[in-house]
Amino acid sequence: MAPTDIPVGDSTALLALVSPLLSSLLLSYLFAYGLQGILMVQVYNYYISFPNDKIFWKILVYFVLISEIVQTSLASLDAFKIFSSGWGRFAILDDMSLLYITPIMSGAIGLICHGIFAYRLYSLSGSWIVCLIVVLLALLACSSGFAFGIKLSLATTLSKVIKTSNIYLVCGLWNGGGAGCDVAIAALMTFYLSRSSTGYKSTDVLLTRIIRLTIETGLFTATASLLSAILFIGYRTNFKISIWFIVPAGVLAKLYAITILAMFNNRVQGINRMNGSSGASIISRGGGPEMGIQAFDTSRRPSRAEIRIGRSVVQQVWADDIEIKSVKVSPSDLSATSVLTLIAH
After folding, report:
1. What is the pTM of this model?
2. DSSP for 280-338?
3. Can you tell me the distance from the alpha carbon of 24 to that of 2, in angstroms, rounded to the nearest whole number?
4. Is residue 54 a contact partner of residue 290, using CB atoms and an 8 Å limit?
5. Range ranked top by mean pLDDT from 186-200, 243-257, 267-281
6. CA 165 → CA 51, 100, 148, 162, 168, distances in Å?
7. What's the whole-number average pLDDT of the chain?
8. Helix, strand, or coil (residue 63)
9. Are the C-beta atoms of residues 188 and 117 closer than 8 Å to each other?
């Protein structure tokens, strides 16, 4: 049922139509504000944790932040017009206004997110085919998102959207392509990271964290994409249900943006910095340290646990009351462990 099908004097039918529209818009704005706050915190953590990060990654992160701030600002203008200055005017509700920007932003930010994952997959697998599959799905979702946004813009009103040619096909390609790309990334990342098990507990724990993060973020974005498609396409004959597609579609871009920041902030250097550990140095493997694909090199300097063990051994050997600093030992008699022990004392 389209908005133009409701007689002006039929207040009951008009209220039944307007209520889900207002509710879906309100929830979309509220979720957008909440996710924008989470994104701001993520960017602040990135700024604190990675002051010396590559300039390319910094530009990418701040571009995503600025893009989401712009989208939130435009959404706020719509919210002010609907719930304040234009309150009670049905024509304002039917107006498409700036809603068409949502799929365009989702497509653009999603392409960036999927592109970063494609790079990480290539670093892990070394296969251009795997990378190409992800890139093609990402381009399909992005181009379909742009096309969907353009069709919404040309429709000008919500009542004309359902009459737009191929609108449901384009929406299905946008959301289906994005969800398919998210599922493919989660499956491939899990497969290749599982094969990278080193046998060292600390490294394997980090690999497990990356796998869990990939699956969790992919689950959120894929669910939002599928839910948007199901509501808009599956219930296209029932406007009061299909209009709820605005909620998942409205937050999709921010979910992708948060995923990008979560990838950057969960890199090995960030984990070590946040935990304050300084025992093991990090060497790059494949994708470079900027992408969080690292291995540990503990041969450069010992951990605190090794130093404590050395101290306990010395205390057992020197059982008398002579202080260790009073004993003269020639350099040739010092092993690597005893040197570390003396440094520790």
Report:
1. 0.72
2. SEEEE-SS-GGGT-EEEETTSS--HHHHHHHHHHHHHH--SS--GGG----GGG--HHH
3. 16
4. yes
5. 243-257
6. 49, 16, 11, 8, 8
7. 75
8. helix
9. no
